[in-house]
Amino acid sequence: MTTRPRRDQAPRPFLPLDARRRRSDNKRVSAAASLPRRILGFWPALALVVGNMIGSGIYLLPATLAPLGANALIGWGVTILGAMALAFVFARLAAKLPCAGGPYAFADAAFGPVVGFAVAWSYWILVWAGNGAVAIAVVSALGVPFPLLASGAPAFGTALVLIWALVAVNIRGVALAGRIQLVTAILKLLPLAGIVVLALWLLLRDGHAAIAANPSVPIGAGAVAGAVALTFWGFLGVESATVPADKVKDAARTVPLVTLLGTALTGLVYVLVAGTITLMMPADAVAASPSPLAAFLGRSWGAGAQLIVALFAAISALGTLNGFILLQGEMPWAMARGGVFPAWFAKENRHGTPARAHLVSGVLVTLVMALNYTGSTATLFAEIATISLAAGMLAYFVSALAALKLLAGDRAVTVAAIIAAGFVLWMIYGLGLRANLWGLGLLALGLPVFLWVRRAR
Fold this sequence. Notes:
Number of domains: 1
CATH class: Mainly Alpha
GO molecular function: transmembrane transporter activity
Main location: membrane
Subcellular location: Cell membrane
CATH superfamily: Amino acid/polyamine transporter I
InterPro entries: AA/rel_permease1 (IPR002293), APC_superfamily (IPR050367)
Keywords: Cell membrane, Membrane, Transmembrane, Transmembrane helix
Number of strands: 0
């Protein structure tokens, strides 16, 4: 008679199919033999999902979306629908495969190591390139109380200090990173709740006079698609709990739950806050502000409130940066354990974290910042956000297809996966030709790496 493992006991470490055929190659997968400790409980895992999504997007996107008018609100609605479909797909896949790597593990199990590598490589690019944009969001918010940080070399230097400080935190240990994530997730909700309360008070006091008289913008499929592509930046991280699933307690239950609950909570916050800014502030003022949410509160509560909200915005984006820096180290580590990335990345330090993967990812974030730091923070944010999204869309699309294969026969999953796949394709269209060409180019850079690793084996 077999004995079932306790719920809090870590299962056998996951190795993708191709790697399991070569488990005897100790040189290639040097860290596969040790079981990772289950460190993240329900609340830190939920904070990872919510904290990674609610971050820079809600503070910077209103300025980017202001010229689109009502198309932006429609875009938010479509994005929330697509994000919930993706969340359902990731939740069901995580319940079936609660293992390290998230999208990479799902793609490898469904389609093999070649597709698995392509997904992991594109997702890794999405994360470390996107972290450059998140760091810019932190600095942009700090630019309200400290105007010197609004652009140029001071903004660049401050962003790098923040990036490397959080790289050090994540190298020190997942537990510490999880505690920081939980604290920042709680703090970031406070000013957002204040905005909703103020909006309700203004509507009750002034009625229709509280609505800004913005010029009408024609509704168009292209404009809505562009808004969807940008607003999904605010939902980037829907899969966050699936990537370090091997470090989550009772992952088969916790990861699906926090993925769905976190996405729903995030969608509710975005509807309330984005709707408030779009309807109650002049579009030109929103577009010109480095921190539109701070500007909204500042109009009613004075400059002091504006400065406080700007600091909370910086804390919010800092929490998102912390969460995604965790992921940017976990993904190459999972790839190396699976045999599709150099085994050098699978090495852990004495704290049980992939220090080498974190250091290389940190260098890559630094490079993308160095190549793009000139100009305003809003322009830089939009540039990096669109290119990193284009690079990472493959991970979301293939995850939807993996659900259709691995969970065939489940009608609810089939419907959600089809919606999610269609949503991702529409986002790819909305990102535009230039961003997608950049994304394809970055994906192609992974081919020599994959061929080199395969040849070395």
